[in-house]
């Protein structure tokens, strides 16, 4: 099974890159330039497409495009910019990633425009494309090849009127951007961008800032806390949004029980609580079943609680690996008791991990500390 196909038969790569999407892209180029051979472009893109994975399809379409655009890079990028549809809805503030069919345009720019003499055309084109589909992956090639010039351009983009351009500044410089190359610049180099963008009015941008900080926290936890403390003082962002950014940025540290991060968010790392009646509905499950846990918490003093649960999943080699899941944030007064329960579906065909039979365990974690562990047996799937 490929990384873009699930057991249910759904194929992300086929949804994102298919004849209909390629014909749409072809039509845009034809509309901008009547001499563009749209039928040949579509035919050549579809040839062998079904055998390729998602990223391979992006490269394949970019290679075909090279055959249909001018060998002169400035002329080719001008045609790309002219073919682009109107920018994504400027009235939205979140969840507007754009159309994946434009990813090959960024690949084209990277493949053909990395020379220093082409940099101005490349960055100008990526800026336009990112208003239709995020160029967070493509921009990283230019950060590595021409760090000073590219970062200087990103400084200008960090105050651009289009929030997709502003988001790209944070997302494109993330140390651990999923599915992308690791940057050669120091992890702290983009900090000035985050200083600007943390005050952005758009959640799409501030979510990227929070994810960026979470990346940094894995190697520089104290730096992230220092930034958040400073931002809290300067009050350039609303209290509500900065609280959201902080929780999202510190999520990995919280899962690890990092005491300074817990304290910053208002959680004691030694809560005075009593946990009782922690139990599982059943201790034997199959893939597709739900793990059901329940317990009660009583506070011996007023407490802010971050309640998680950790499942130790069996791996292919028989060892286990923990995965932390959020359960609830709550405030308890002294003497107050609350009963909680949680159902966790053990998906048989998850795209991010595979279930293996064996002895698993679930641990209740409150403010980063364990408060009881219960074993359960995952039986072999009947479909195996």
How is this structure best described in words?
The protein is of the alpha+beta class. It contains 16 helices and 8 strands. The strands form 2 sheets. A 5-stranded mixed β-sheet has the order 2-8-7-4-5, with no helix packed on it. Strands 1-3-6 form a 3-stranded antiparallel β-sheet, with no helix packed on it. β7 (358-366) and β8 form a beta hairpin. α10 runs parallel beside α12 (203-217). The two termini are 14 Å apart.
Shape: globular
In angstroms, what separates the terminal alpha carbons?
Answer: 14 Å
CA radius of gyration is 25 Å
- Structural class from helices and strands? alpha+beta
Strand order across the largest sheet: 2-8-7-4-5
How many individual β-strands?
8
What is the helix content?
40-55%
The fraction of residues assigned to DSSP E strands is 15-25%
The major pleated sheet works out as: 5 strands, mixed
Number of helices: 16
Helix and strand element order: HHHHHHHHHHHHHHHHEEEEEEEE
Chain-averaged pLDDT? 93
**Poorly predicted ranges (pLDDT <50, ≥5 residues)?**
1-9
Topology of helices and strands:
Elements: H1 12-16, H2 19-32, H3 38-46, H4 54-68, H5 73-83, H6 103-112, H7 119-129, H8 138-145, H9 147-157, H10 163-171, H11 191-197, H12 203-217, H13 221-234, H14 239-249, H15 251-255, H16 259-264, E1 273-280, E2 284-285, E3 290-299, E4 303-314, E5 320-332, E6 337-345, E7 358-366, E8 369-378
Parallel strand pairs: 2-8
Antiparallel strand pairs: 1-3, 3-6, 4-5, 4-7, 7-8
